[in-house]
Automatic annotation (TrEMBL):
Keywords: Cytoplasm, Exonuclease, Hydrolase, Nuclease. Coiled coil: none annotated. It is an enzyme of class 3 (hydrolase). It comes from the Bacteria. GO terms for molecular function: exodeoxyribonuclease VII activity. It comes from Methylophilus glucosoxydans. Belongs to the XseB family. Its main location: cytoplasm. This is Exodeoxyribonuclease 7 small subunit. It is found in: Cytoplasm. Bidirectionally degrades single-stranded DNA into large acid-insoluble oligonucleotides, which are then degraded further into small acid-soluble oligonucleotides. Heterooligomer composed of large and small subunits.
Amino acid sequence: MSAPKKTPSAVSDQPSFAERLAALETIVKRMESGELPLEASLAAYTEGVQLLQACQTSLEQAEQTVMLLNQQQQLTPFEAN
């Protein structure tokens, strides 16, 4: 019997860049509302810092990939008409 095929979402339990960014935006809005108690604000801030670091790491990895592809000349310049 063969193993079931994994869907892309099943391959990685990690949230995507877009999901992390949306969560970060939600945290910022909640904190800016001024309605969070101190403890919740600190917890939200900590979560926000972790999300920001994960987003920055994703962007750095994407930049490295683009640079590598460009060095291998696998990208063609965009020419507007």
